[in-house]
Amino acid sequence: MELFVEDMDVSVKFYRELLGFEVQRRAAGYASLRRGLVVLGLGPVAKLPAQGEGRGFTRQRLSVDKGAGVEIVLELDGLDELQALYEHCRERAVISEPLELRSWGLYDFRLADPDGYYLRITHGNAAARIG
């Protein structure tokens, strides 16, 4: 998955320092980050064409609302890891929805990245419960 972002430095810092991704590769127009099995690419909006026809990405199209209608789900290995990341994020970012048990049996919390991409952070074990 690649996200087009306004400020590469701000986005790399968000994913690295807040969510624990490691930078695998960094160049002027691209960054590749990894957390576990998840690989995330970041590219600058500025490298896109200003406008165009069809369904391709353009700066004009992304100026309306980046990520509208998309929820990016990061699934962690377990509930302890989820709780720790939630506490880390809660002290450093605006949480859209707090950590809670959902009707489908998993805990999650939600937040947006600096460009407004909506993130749901959850865990992979439906049997787990918070103490």
From TrEMBL:
Pfam families: Glyoxalase. InterPro entries: Glyas_Bleomycin-R_OHBP_Dase, Glyas_Fos-R_dOase_dom, VOC_core. Residues 1-124 form the VOC domain. Gene3D superfamilies: 2,3-Dihydroxybiphenyl 1,2-Dioxygenase, domain 1. This is VOC domain-containing protein. It comes from Planosporangium mesophilum.
